[in-house]
Amino acid sequence: MRSFVLIVVLFSLMGCATGEKMSRQKEGMAKSDVIEVLGDPDGFQRSGEYEALNTITGL
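Now predict its structure.
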C-alpha cells in the first residue's frame, strides 16, 4: 500500500512539472522559443511544412 501511495505522488509531481512547462506554450511560437522553454528535443517528425518536436520529460 505504501508503494502505491508513493507511485501516485511521483506521477502527480511529474504532471505538475510538465503541465507548468506546457502551459507556457502558445500557438504560433517560433521553434527556438519552444526549445528555450522545453529544452532540446529528443527527436522530431516532419510532414510537409510542419515539424513536431518530441521531448521526453523526466525527473
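Residues 2-23 form the longest helix (22 residues).
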